[in-house]
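Query form — protein DNA polymerase Y family protein

QUESTION: What is the three-dimensional structure of this chain?
INPUT:
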Amino acid sequence: MVDKIANALRLTAVDEQAAKAGLYKGMALTDARAQFDKLDIAFASPRKDGELLEKLADWCDRYTPLVALDAPHGLILDMTGCIHLFGDEPTLLKDVHRQLQRHGMIVKTAFAGNAAAASALARHSAGGIVEPSDQNRRLYALPLVSLDLEDAHIAGLRRAGLRTVGDLDVLPRAALTARFGNGVVAGLDALFGRQSKPISPRRIVPVCMVERRMAEPLIAMEAVELVLVQLADELFIRLGQRVEGAREIEASFFRTDGNVRRLRIEAGRPLTDTKTLMRLMKERLSTLAEPLDAGFGFDMIRLGALRTDRTRHQQKSLDDREQETEEVERLIDRLSIRLGNSRVLRPTPVDTHIPERTVALEPASKTKRESNGEWTAQPQGDPPERPVRLFQPPERIEATFEVPDSPPAQFIWRRVRHNVVLAEGPERIAPEWWREHSGALTRDYYRLEDSSGKRFWVFREGLLERGTPNPRWYLHGLFA
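ANSWER: The structure tokens for DNA polymerase Y family protein are given below.
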């Protein structure tokens, strides 16, 4: 493999035969062709390599939900609590190698006590299963490049006569830090597990998960649906033991050719029964641009609850009909599945004193607990403090007033003159200085009623005493 590096074509990877012939990574292509006339070369494509690595990571979800990328060419799998599903470590490694070799890939693996050690042993040693009692000896034999240090630091360490990780680990920490910085010591601590460095999985780890591995791949969709029903029954039994329902469920379909298809279902209320889930699943399947295709068959199907919530008893009416709120929630779930959460919205209050920002739209499937806040109840008998309808942006009006700080006596809006008979205010609202630009002005709001009984909400932008020469008037809303 060749790529353009520093305005020259250089080798970025060589196979076993080329390595035995003396070619190496970083070698100039002209030097390689000077030794061998007939070279089978291909141009490197890091983007396609990354896409392939992402697909391999999806495929590795069949072994554990904790899969992380170890760029540029590796994957890290946290197998804690998953080994028993495959028998033991040798059986698991044998299955990984067999499955990938069937797709024409060569893989090198290593089992170790932490992610950094496993990555270094897989890249720079023979790999395999490393026993805890033998791990330090294996790590001591690794070359310095296994620490992922800068080239300048590695060159400096080699000039000092250091060749392996063991040569470096026995030196005083203070001297290493003073000469090469914290990176060397941090790399050693991560390699030997002295410093906890958890991996960052690519996908959300399910709260509760069930799966089914098939002895023979499933091709018929009727069989796939039957397996989904069985998995849903098992999942809801487990969630019921936790007194929880599923707010977000993901179904994963693993094909024998390595492709993984995922369907995600989000609900506005906790799901607790298989019938409702399957109804939403069918709605989701009907909206797919690419139908669910089994190809050569699914060899594993997984159902996981990504988000859960405490369940509560639903109040029933006297004639055993469900409450109207539950019917509305069902409608919201169906619309959200068909149209998408970003298209089924409802207003929610926002904690701010700026009128046009007090309401935001959010997915209707969110619960009140996940929303920004609660609506403030209006005291009975009092006139409303805010109008029912707001204009965004506020509309400019021409106002006539007796003194600069008084409410307008009359104003012209949309070429119609309104004579003010009642006025209430002002209500002063200052800008949010932490998010507004420096030129934002203070507003004085007034509630006005004209001679025909119409009520308006207007404000004056800017104050004379603060240096605004000609404050402007705007109509911001209308009262019912």
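ADDITIONAL NOTE: Residues 221-241 form the longest helix (21 residues).
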